[in-house]
């Protein structure tokens, strides 16, 4: 399949809407583990991205520039630890698609693997720490394995999102080991991690966009 710069711009717009819709839910999760502001933080970051989508990026066709501007804009708008994580992801992904106005299955796979690796390299957390990594690491492994076998991005990314969902849900049973919530110890068990949840939403939204495009 071919995914264009226009598709990516539409995708990022959809993420803006998802974060607005899910803001209170993400805050509710975070109230049980931290400051209770994760939903607000995500909407602040994505509203800033939306401004760029409506202005500077409105007619942009270079996928590399789109992805890097999204990453830097999110970083500049968000002061919390999540800012550098997503900035690293989108800027790392931008290197794969620099100068391209459309990408094929293999390039899409490389883009999302680079996105996830960028976050992992920045965050230094491990699977089981009850963080964003519990969603994105299994998603990356499923994407790579599935695409190697099928050479079909849509089916591989579907597998990735399913693996990410399983990882996200697994955080309910984990004790937080990193960040403010780690101070809760055993009390952090029983609540789904908000960062793992918003990361899943970002992946799931892309899957929905490419499914519609391919239908």
Secondary-structure map with pairings?
Layout: E1 3-4, H1 5-31, H2 38-54, H3 63-77, H4 82-97, E2 102-103, H5 105-123, H6 133-150, H7 153-170, H8 194-214
Antiparallel strand pairs: 1-2
Write structural notes for this entry.
The chain has 215 residues and is mainly alpha-helical. The protein has a single domain, classed as DhaL domain (Serine Threonine Protein Phosphatase 5, Tetratricopeptide repeat, Alpha Horseshoe), CATH 1.25.40. It contains eight helices and two strands; from the N terminus they run E-H-H-H-H-E-H-H-H-H. The protein has a two-stranded antiparallel ribbon with strand order 1-2. Helix 1 (5-31) runs antiparallel to helix 2 and helix 7 (153-170) runs antiparallel to helix 8 (194-214). The longest helix has 27 residues, at 5-31. Pfam families: Dak2. Keywords: Glycerol metabolism, Kinase, Transferase.
Name the overall outline: globular
The radius of gyration computed from the alpha-carbon positions, rounded to a whole number of angstroms, is 16 Å
Would you identify the regions where 5 or more consecutive residues have pLDDT less than 50? Answer: none
Please indicate the percent range of residues in DSSP E strands (runs of 2 or more).
Answer: under 5%
Major pleated sheet: 2 strands, antiparallel
Q: List how many beta strands DSSP finds.
A: 2
Integer count of domains: 1
Domain DhaL: 6-208
Pathway: Polyol metabolism; glycerol degradation
EC number: 2.7.1.121
Protein name: phosphoenolpyruvate--glycerone phosphotransferase
């Amino acid at each position: 399949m071919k995914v264009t710069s226009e598709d990516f711009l539409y995708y990022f717009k959809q993420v803006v809407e998802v974060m607005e819709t899910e803001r209170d839910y993400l805050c509710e999760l975070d109230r049980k583990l931290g400051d209770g502001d994760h939903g607000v933080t995500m909407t602040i970051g994505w509203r800033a991205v939306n401004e760029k989508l409506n202005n500077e990026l409105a007619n942009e066709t270079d996928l590399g520039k789109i992805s890097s501007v999204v990453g830097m804009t999110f970083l500049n708008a968000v002061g919390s630890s999540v800012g550098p994580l997503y900035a690293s992801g989108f800027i790392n992904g931008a290197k794969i698609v620099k100068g391209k106005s459309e990408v094929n299955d293999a390039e899409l796979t490389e883009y999302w693997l680079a996105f996830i690796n960028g976050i992992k390299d920045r965050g230094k957390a491990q699977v089981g720490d009850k963080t964003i990594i519990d969603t994105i690491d299994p998603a990356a492994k499923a994407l790579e394995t599935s695409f190697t076998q099928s050479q079909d991005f849509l089916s591989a990314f579907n597998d990735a999102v399913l693996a990410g969902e399983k990882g996200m849900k697994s955080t309910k049973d984990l004790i937080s080991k990193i960040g403010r919530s780690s101070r809760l110890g055993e009390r952090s068990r029983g609540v789904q991690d908000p960062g793992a949840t918003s990361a899943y939403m970002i992946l799931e939204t892309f899957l929905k966009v490419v499914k519609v495009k391919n239908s």
